Structures are given as C-alpha cells and as structure tokens.
Amino acid sequence: MNIRSVLVANRGEIAVRIIRAAKALGLRTVQVYSRADAESLPVQLADEAIEIGPPAAKKSYLNIEAVLAAAKAADVDAVHPGYGFLAENADFADAVTAAGMKFVGPSGEAIRLLGDKVMARQVAEKAGVPTVPGSNGRVSDLAEATAIAARIGFPVMLKAAAGGGGRGIRMADSVEVFERQFPQASAEAAAAFGDGGLYIEKLIERARHIEVQILGDGENFVHCFERECSLQRRRQKVWEEAPAVGLPDNIRERLCASAVALARAVRYSGAGTVEYLYDDATQQFYFIEVNTRIQVEHPVTEMITGLDLVQEMLRIAGGENLSVRQEDIRIKGHSIECRINAEDPLRNFMPWPGTVETLSVPNGGGIRFDTLLFPGYAVPPFYDSLLGKLIVHDDDRAACLDKLRDALDRLAITGIPTTIPLHSALVADPHVRAGRTHTRFLEHWLDTDFAALTRAKEEA
Q: How much is the pTM?
C-alpha cells in the first residue's frame, strides 16, 4: 500500500472508526477538529490533531481551505472524508488530488455524476437498472412539473436533484397540493445544497428501503449484499439490518447484480451504496440514488460478511486491488443496528446537548458499540445528534432481536436523554419482530403505539 498516513476530515463516531481502521493497517493518523471538539475522543485517539476553526461547521469541517492546509501541514498521504460534511463534495475530492494526496473515495468526476440524482438515474437506466417512474431529468418550471405529475399519476414525490438526507423532498396527492409544494421544495433544496433543481418520482406506497453495499477499485467490482433501512423518521434512518427481511433469493441476486452493473458503468473506486425502493406486492425494485461514501449503517454489512469496509477503502486508495472476489463474500447470520441519538423521544425528539455523566456499554459475542462517548464528554449543540450505534449479530433474525433487546437493557447513558427507549419499544413491537415494516411505518407507529407507551410511562 503506497500510503503511510491519513488525515480524518470528519468528527464523532465515524472519525473514531476511521482512526481505528487506519491504526490497524499501521498508518499514522491526523485528526482535524473545531474548537468545540478539542476534547473529543477522535482528538485523543489520533497520533496528531490540528484545530481548523470555530464550532460552526461552515468555518471548520466544511472549510475546504482549512482542511487542506491541515493536511499539507501534517504531510499526510491521504484524506478520508467519512460521511456528511465534505464526503460527497466533488470539488473537495479534486482539491485533495490536485494537492498530491489520495482522496479515500471515488473521483470528483464520479461524485459529480452520481451525486446529482437526475444524472445518476440516467446512468442507472443506461446500465439496465430499473428506476422509479418519473421525470426524464430535472423539471424546468411548475407548468412542466405539473404536466408530468398528472401523466405519472398521483401521489408523487418532488425531490432535490442535488444532495440528500431527506431535505428538498415533498409528497403530493393532488394537483392543488403539488402546486403548493413545488416552490417550497425548490427553496429548501436551494438553501440546503445551493441548487434548487427538482425532479419527480412516483410515490410507491408502503415501499421498503433496501440498499446494496458495493466496493470497486476501478477495474474490479463486488457487492457485499444488501441492508434494509425501512424504519425511518422524517426520512432519516433510525434502525438498519442486514440482510433485508424475507427478501426472496432471486430478487436479492437481481438487486445485487444491478448494483454491480452500475458500479462497473462508472468504473467506481472505493466504497459506495446503491439505494432502492422495493415493492413487496409486485416484487419489483427501483433505483433511487447512489451514496458515494461510507454509510452510517456500514457495520451491519461488516458483521454479516466479516469484511472491514473502512480498511478496504484505505487499501484501495493506497493503490491495491480489491482483497476479495465476489465468490468469497457470503452472508453469515443476521445483524441489526440502532442509532443512539442525543434526543428526547418523549419530547418530540428534541436534540439535547449536555454532559454524559456515566456510560455503561454491553459486551459479549456479537455486540458492538461504535461511539464517540466517554464519561464526562460534553455533547456540543453544533452538530448532528448521533452519539453512537449499537450493533448486534447472531445466527438468525429472531436470535438477533433477542440479543438486541438484552443489549439495549444493558446500554446506559446518563446525564442526557437518548433514543434508547425508542429502540427498546421497537424491538418489542410485533410488527417489527415479524418484519412487517415499510418507509412510512415508523411515523404512524410514533403517533399511535409509541404515543400510547409514553403516556402510560408518564401516568405511571
């Protein structure tokens, strides 16, 4: 491998994850940090740490010039962007490369191509990957959009052409609603991504969200099977598992093969995720987007395959070919991940920065907790509320759910409210246990089952 050192251009649990993977490969690690993160765990773990600005992300973690200056000062060979912040910024990828360092991820060209959802959809169609019925590219104005929506048939979704994370998305079940939502969606997309462009997709009722993990070195491409991410709140994933629940083998084979075809079409390099909607009623799947980075939920794939995806990314960036062939990758058991956030589920998921007083983490075979926490850590108010991810693995899904229930009972974080109670309630829910969920399930569940549960607790 032709890299000896790596700068981590991120923070929190993913920074910890990258540092540990890099150290396992014998690489020197350099962590950048804002003043709000001066005492954070990544700063403590890295071989070197460099402050790059004030707490505001746009002046630190999103400041390309500051990150590059730190990388040059530390004389690193590579930069790993993690997820979020600059991870899918093509200009950043190009700037890292132009500065003579390796960007741990795909090229800026690939990020531009796949990061724009309209262009990615066109690439998918050329590669023979099924896509959701919708507009053929961006819509130019409200009149064109309304005509396309009427042709497709309501309900439909308005989606931002750039970016992701659930922003710039609106659903409409009639022309009247559509005409109100169009300027709102465009304004939100422009504010979030600097691009108000929109496209239209048919809304698939009771869809499941399934994604395929891919790896490529520019010449060789493999999939690492699929994950299911159907439990979402406000289009943000809450709970992920691998493999997808009850997915027929023939569908799995077609789904994963289509993701590899897409990776091959763009000569993909690094780790990426191809995301789909799946309709149980028709057994049809539809491409929706590509995430050109490591995903928050990558640990469940690691648990069922035995691969270290972050190490694989570093090896690829270091000029090595893929270390595995497709026939080497097998599904072993089942894995579930719960995102533990600093939010109060009893108060409409209000974010809750504060100081962690005590931390008790469950241990044992098949249990993993990826986190940025330690006792006395002050959770800052400036960033995403993710504190860590509780991941379990067992021989099958039923055993995995039981192990998760026990692990949640033993995971204790005091000083701030967290979403642990949400997951404890979900793991006991009969619909969740039976795998009868979809992308709109959790919103309804929060209004009914969880609401009843919280009322009972408050009355008690």
A: 0.91
